[in-house]
Amino acid sequence: MKRIITGAAIVGVLLGIWGAAGLAQDKPLKKVVFAVTTKDISVGHSAHSSLPRALGYWKEEGLDVTVTSVEGSAAGMQQLAAGNLQIVSIGPEEIVLGREKGVKIKGFYVQARETIYRIVVPADSPLQKVADLKGKTIGVPSLASGSVPFVKALVASVGIDPEKDVKVLAVGVGAPGRLALQQKQIDCLALWDTLQASIENSGMPLRRLDLPMVREMLGQTLATRDDQVSENAAVLVGFARGVAKATVFGLANPEAAIRIHWNMYPQTKPQTGDEAKALKDALNVFNARFMLQRVDNRPDPRFGIGTLAQWEKLKSIFKDQKLIEGAVPAADLYSAALIDQINKFDRAAIVAQAKAFKP
């Protein structure tokens, strides 16, 4: 009799578990529209595109995420302000500039701990420093790209008037930009990390024109509207936690991450040529972004964190170059209120999953 009761109890417990699981599965997922601010969703962007979807990280958070793309950070900010999407991966400079224009946009998760933007020249170019750009033509992927305010701040810091002393020309993404540089239609190219790696993979060695201030500028940031931070905090936490998990996975097993991305975005994989070279080139692009997303080499190893002091520094860079008035407080630009919740996951378990993963 005792055995029968015990068996019945076990069956009851199992039925309860299955019932609860069924209810969880039946619960509708919250729809989220997210934008990447480039049409070139390369393997370097896999932490906020292919990986969280393919590995089910967003679904585990109860989210049904649509990943779309817009051309440039300015366009991403406009779409966010218009309510056409809930979250955007955007250059922090656009948050600073947009906020001054009255756009209620706020960062809540810093993806890249340093700016992704840079100015590059062919390795054999006579241009050696940013000050050499006076009177030159600077190519940018598009006039809506976050590389434009970056260029203006950089040249202004060495006494070059960005409106009068240089010409900024939109040359397109990838091959068109490379061709414009190769044919000397432009003297240098302002672009982002993964795009530089892609051009270098095509056989064109590049050299950065750098300044110390570049290391002090925050990088790509997940942003949303002000009202979302308070009204839909759980959605933002779940979304960013999925990105954080995907970052851990990618760093632990880059090759698996690349193959997952290729499977979800087949157009990003070379259709011809040697598989080994394709993987090597993809790793170059992948590392260009993922190395900026590492947290284990930072004083604060929490994913997504950015201090108000860093945002104040970013703001002061643009204020010093008279690109903004600088009246908006740093607290209006970024909130760390969700960071601790976002980081509540087992990193070791994700690393183990990545190590064991077979594409």
**Beta-strand percent range:** 5-15%
**Count of helical regions:** 15
Per the CATH scheme, the topology name of the largest domain is: D-Maltodextrin-Binding Protein, domain 2
> Helix coverage percent of residues?
40-55%
The secondary-structure class comes to: alpha/beta
**Annotated CATH homologous superfamily of the largest domain:** Periplasmic binding protein-like II
General form: globular
Under CATH at level 1, the class of the largest domain stands as Alpha Beta
Strand ordering within the main sheet: 2-1-3-10-4
Task: Looking at this protein, list some descriptive labels.
single chain; 359 residues; alpha/beta; D-Maltodextrin-Binding Protein, domain 2; 2 domains; five-stranded mixed β-sheet; 15 helices; 10 strands; globular; disordered N terminus
Describe the structure.
This protein is an alpha/beta fold and 359 residues long. The protein folds into 2 domains: 29-115 and 218-356, D-Maltodextrin-Binding Protein, domain 2 (3-Layer(aba) Sandwich); 117-216, Periplasmic binding protein-like II (D-Maltodextrin-Binding Protein, domain 2, 3-Layer(aba) Sandwich). Helix content is 45%, strand content 14%. The protein is built from 15 helices and 10 strands. It has helices at 2-26, 50-54, 57-60, 73-81, 92-100, 147-156, 175-182, 193-201, 226-231, 233-252, 254-264, 275-293, 308-320, 339-342, 347-356, and strands at 30-36, 63-69, 87-90, 105-110, 117-122, 137-140, 167-170, 188-192, 206-209, 221-225. Strands 2-1-3-10-4 form a 5-stranded mixed beta sheet, with helices on both faces. It has a 5-stranded mixed beta sheet with strand order 7-6-8-5-9, with helices on both faces. Helix 6 links the parallel strand 6 (137-140) and strand 7 (167-170). The longest helix has 25 residues, at 2-26. The protein is globular, with a radius of gyration of 22 Å. The termini are far apart. The model is unreliable at 1-24 (pLDDT under 50).
